[in-house]
Design brief:
Length: about 325
C-alpha cells in the first residue's frame, strides 16, 4: 500500500520537519503541497536537501483534485484550518491536524484561549486526540486526529498513567516548562527573535497560554480533583522542551512512581524512563524520543518528574507520523528511527 498524502503549511518549521520524515517513509507518496506565499515554487527548490520528494509545485488547494488522496496533514497556524479549509475538503478524507483547532472539547474555552471564533465546531466530534502512547487503540481506529501540542505532550505522557492508576490522587500539580523559540512558529514576534532572546530568559503567557485548557482537559478525564499551575518559559535555543512537574509526595513513594512508569512504558520505543539522571536537551533534539526522569527534592517532600523532548518532532511532526503509522497499519517507528 502506498499512501497518497498532501500537506498544508509545508514551509513552516513543523511542515518542513514533517516533510523530512515523509521523504524517508517507504509507504508514502506526497501528491500535493499547499501554501500561500510560495505558490508556484517547486518543492525541490524550497527543500534541495531532500532527495526523494516529488518535483511538484506548491499550489492553491482550491484548484487541487483530492479524489485519490488518502490523508491530509495540516501544519497551519491555529484557526486557519477550521475557518478556511476543512469545510472545503471532501467528506471522509483522513486528516491529521497539527494545530489546536480540534483539540479542545469545550468551544468557549477554544475561543477564549485561541482568541478566535471556531466556525466548524460541529466537526470536532470526528477527531481523536492523538497522544500516541496513551490513546493508541483509539488512534488506530480513527480517520481524523487532533495532534497534541508540544507542551501537553511533554506533560501528559508521564502523568496520565499515574492518574489512570490513581497513584496521583487529589492534589495540586505545578508544571514549570521551558521551550526553544521554534515552538512559536515562523511568524515574526519581537520577543521571540534571537536578538531579544540572546543571553535572556523569561516566562510568558502565564495566565493565557493556549495549551493550558488542553492539559487541563486531558487531566480531568482521569481525575476531577487535580488542579494545575502551568508556567511556560522561552529559552535562547531553537528547539527542545523540558517540563518539570512537581507533585506533593504525601502518600506517594518516589520508587513506586519510577517503577510504575518504567513498567508502563517498557514496550514503547520512544519513551525512556530514568531515575535521578538529568537529561540535557541536546540528548533529545532531532529525535522522536521523550525522556522522563523521576526523583525527589532534598527535603523529600516533593516528587519531581522531568520530561524532555524535541518540540518540533515528538511534540509535533514525529508524533504525527506515529499517528499516521497507527492509522494505516504501518510499523509505528517507520521513518522515525
Amino acid at each position: 500500500m502506498t499512501l497518497k498524502v498532501c500537506i498544508f503549511g509545508v514551509s513552516g518549521y513543523t511542515g518542513s520537519k514533517l516533510l523530512n520524515y515523509l521523504d524517508k517513509h517507504s509507504k508514502v507518496e506526497i501528491v500535493g503541497v499547499f501554501g500561500s506565499s510560495n505558490i508556484g515554487v517547486r518543492l525541490r527548490e524550497v527543500f534541495p536537501n531532500l532527495s526523494m520528494i516529488p518535483d511538484i509545485e506548491i499550489s492553491d488547494f482550491k484548484l487541487f483534485n483530492f479524489d485519490k488522496v488518502d490523508l491530509v496533514f495540516s501544519c497551519l497556524p491555529h484557526g486557519e484550518f477550521q475557518k478556511n479549509i476543512i469545510s472545503k475538503l471532501k467528506k471522509g478524507l483522513s486528516i491529521i491536524d497539527l494545530s489546536g483547532d480540534f483539540r479542545i472539547e469545550n468551544k468557549p474555552e477554544y475561543e477564549k484561549f485561541y482568541d478566535t471564533k471556531h466556525e466548524t465546531y460541529e466537526l470536532k466530534s470526528e477527531f481523536t486526540y492523538g497522544l500516541t502512547e496513551i490513546y493508541k487503540d483509539e488512534i488506530s481506529n480513527s480517520k481524523k486526529i487532533a495532534n497534541p501540542g508540544c507542551y501537553p505532550t511533554s506533560i501528559l505522557i508521564p502523568i496520565i498513567p499515574l492518574l489512570k492508576e490513581k497513584i496521583i490522587k487529589g492534589n495540586h500539580i505545578i508544571i514549570d516548562s521551558k521551550s526553544g523559540v521554534s515552538g512559536a512558529g515562523k511568524k515574526l514576534v519581537e520577543q521571540n527573535m534571537f536578538s531579544e532572546l540572546q543571553n535572556n530568559f523569561f516566562s510568558y503567557s502565564t495566565n493565557s497560554h493556549k495549551h493550558f485548557p488542553e492539559i487541563k482537559q486531558e487531566v480531568n478525564k482521569f481525575s476531577k480533583d487535580i488542579s494545575l499551575t502551568f508556567i511556560p518559559h522561552l529559552l535562547p535555543i531553537f528547539s527542545g522542551i523540558q517540563s518539570n512537574i512537581y507533585i506533593d509526595k504525601e502518600n506517594i513513594d518516589v520508587n513506586l512512581v519510577f517503577d510504575f512508569l518504567k513498567s508502563y512504558f517498557a514496550n514503547e520505543m520512544f519513551v525512556k524512563v530514568q531515575k535521578d539522571k538529568i537529561v540535557k536537551l541536546s540528548d533529545v533534539q532531532d529525535t522522536n524520543n521523550i525522556v522522563i526522569n523521576v526523583f525527589q527534592d532534598i527535603e523529600k517532600k516533593i516528587i519531581v518528574i522531568t520530561s524532555s523532548l524535541d518540540n518540533l518532532i515528538k511534540g509535533a511532526a514525529g508524533q504525527a507520523i506515529q499517528n499516521m503509522n497507527l492509522m494505516f497499519g504501518f510499523e509505528e517507528s517507520e521513518s522515525l528511527i
